[in-house]
Amino acid sequence: MAYQKALSHVIACSEAGLLPTRLDEAGMRQALVVLQQHLGAPMPKQAPTSAEPTAAATPMAEPSPAKRSALSKDPRCIALAEALKPALQASCPEGSGGYGGALEAHLHPMDAQALGGLELIRAAMRRAARQLGWQVRTVGYARERLVLVIVQDVRDVPAEFAEVLEADLRSSSVEMHRRVAAVGDAAALSALGPGPVQRQTEAFLRAAQAAMKSDPEAWR
Length: 220
Fold this sequence. Notes:
By secondary structure, this protein is an alpha+beta fold. The protein has helices spanning 3-15, 25-37, 65-73, 75-90, 109-114, 118-131, 159-181, 186-192, 196-214, and strands at 57-59, 102-107, 136-143, 147-153. It is 55% helix and 11% strand. Helix 4 crosses helix 6.
C-alpha cells in the first residue's frame, strides 16, 4: 500500500477509536490486525478499543474551541506555523498544484515540551496548513518515549492533478517495498538513506529551530 493511503487509513482508524492506546509489542500486533480488518470498510464515528488505556500511549483529542483559539494566538504557535509552511509545501508532490501534502514527525517528549507541548504543535500545524488552503486533519499521540504528530491535506484532488499524485503514490510504494525487502540487511538499508518519516521529522525539526530563532523571547 502506498504511504499516503496507509497514512489516511491509520488516521481514520484512530479517529474512530479502533486502535489500542497501549502501543507496546502486543498493542502494535493488535493495531496491525485492526488496520487489516478495516481496509475498505467505512469508519464509525466512535468505537471502543479493547486495550486498557495507559499513560504510555495516549491519543490526544482535539481541544475545545476556546482552547484552540487561545493556542492559535500564542506567539509560539504563530512563529512555528510560519516556519512550518515551507515544510508542508515541500511535502506536496512536484506538479500536484499543492495537493496531497502530509507531514509526520516523531519527536522526543522533551523536544515536544520545549515547543509548547503536543496541542500547541498541532495548533501550529493546523494554522500553517489552513494558510496554504488545505482541508486539514491532524493526529497526535503521546507515549512515554515518543510524541507523534501528523497533519494531512484531505481535499478532493482535481482531475488535472490526479495522474501526478498517482505517480507519486506508485513511487512511494516502490520505496516502501524496497525498505521492507532490505530489513535485516544493514548495507542495503544504508544505501536507501533516511526513510519518509525520518525525512519529514528532520524537516519539522529544522522548521522548529527556525521558529525559535525568529522569536527567542516567545520560547522563554
